[in-house]
């Protein structure tokens, strides 16, 4: 997988830790709006444009993407520090929070 670069769209891979079966990855789960957010250079959190989807189905491997704009493009938010936050928005929580 390519390394992230400022102002260039980036593909990332995550796993979700199952809260109902600790130590196991959650499979066959559909992420909802607000579950995955991004902050560029410490700015406000914003929903990612494209939610990660499980690929291949049933694997527990979720592939997501950040747009070039979300990776920063100069100016005050130059993209030198991009952080992805995962937080289940639906209670009861199916998976645990994470940062990437």
Keywords:
single chain, 100 residues, mainly beta, 3-stranded antiparallel beta sheet, 7 strands, 0% helix
Structure description:
By secondary structure, the protein is mainly β. The chain has no helices and seven strands. The chain has strands at 10-14, 36-40, 46-47, 50-54, 62-66, 82-86, 98-99. A hairpin with a 7-residue loop joins β4 and β5. The radius of gyration is 14 Å and the shape is globular. The two termini are 15 Å apart.
Globally, the shape reads: globular
Strands, total number? 7
Q: Which strand order does the major sheet show?
A: 3-2-6-7
Helix content: under 10%
Main pleated sheet:
4 strands, antiparallel
In percent, how much strand structure appears in the residues?
25-35%
Structural class: mainly beta
- H/E series: EEEEEEE
The residue-averaged pLDDT reads 91
Poorly predicted tracts of residues: none
Termini distance?
15 Å
**DSSP helix count?**
0
The radius of gyration is 14 Å
Short recap of the structure:
By secondary structure, the chain is an all-beta fold.
Topology:
Blueprint: E1 10-14, E2 36-40, E3 46-47, E4 50-54, E5 62-66, E6 82-86, E7 98-99
Antiparallel strand pairs: 1-5, 2-3, 2-6, 4-5, 6-7
């Amino acid at each position: 997988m390519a390394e992230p670069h400022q102002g260039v769209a980036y593909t990332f891979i995550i796993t979700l830790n199952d809260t109902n079966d600790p130590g196991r990855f959650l499979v066959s789960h559909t992420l909802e709006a607000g579950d995955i957010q991004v902050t560029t250079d410490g700015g406000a959190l914003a929903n990612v444009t494209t939610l990660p989807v499980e690929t291949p189905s049933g694997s527990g491997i979720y592939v997501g993407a950040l747009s070039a704009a979300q990776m920063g493009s100069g100016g005050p938010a130059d993209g030198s520090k991009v952080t992805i936050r995962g937080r289940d928005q639906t209670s009861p929580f199916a998976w645990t929070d994470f940062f990437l």
